[in-house]
Amino acid sequence: MNANPKIYFDLVNSLMETKEWQDIEKNDPIITSAYEEVFGTLENIKDTISIETLDSISRSIGDYASAKADCAALYGIQVAITMNEIIKDPSIYSNYIMEKYISKRK
């Protein structure tokens, strides 16, 4: 089966639209602190640059944050899949550890 990036795109977008994620975005102290810092800084410089430049910076920050969130969600899915596989077959992990220790001895 070939990987279909559209499925991942749709999945990540669906995750970001859940009430749970929206509550996290609004209430997580790390996210809210970062938001206040970024947009406080933009507020402080708004009179020194054009509105077009301010809008461009704001959009770029949003795009960057969105890209990081998308990648984090996909990574989280990969971790969950890996954990599921190891739970189903613990010998996968045991073999990995044994190979790692054996390679250190050489």
Characterise this structure.
With about 110 residues, the protein is mainly alpha-helical. Helix content is about 85%, strand content about 0%. It has helices at about 5-15, 20-25, 30-45, 50-90, 90-105. The radius of gyration is 21 Å and the shape is elongated.
Tag the structure with descriptive keywords.
0% strand, 106 residues, single chain
Overall pLDDT score: 90
Oligomer: single chain
Number of helices: 5
Topology pattern, helix = H, strand = E = HHHHH
Give the termini distance in whole angstroms.
38 Å
Number of domains: 1
Strand content: under 5%
Provide the helix percentage: over 70%
Q: Give the class from helix and strand content and strand pairing.
A: mainly alpha
Counted beta strands: 0
What shape does the CA trace take?
elongated
Radius of gyration: 21 Å
- Can you tell me the residue ranges where pLDDT is under 50 for at least 5 consecutive residues? none
Largest sheet: none
Write the layout of secondary structure elements.
Blueprint (H helix, E strand, L loop, with lengths): L4 H12 L2 H9 L1 H17 L5 H38 L2 H15 L1
In short:
The chain is mainly α. The chain has helices at 5-16, 19-27, 29-45, 51-88, 91-105.
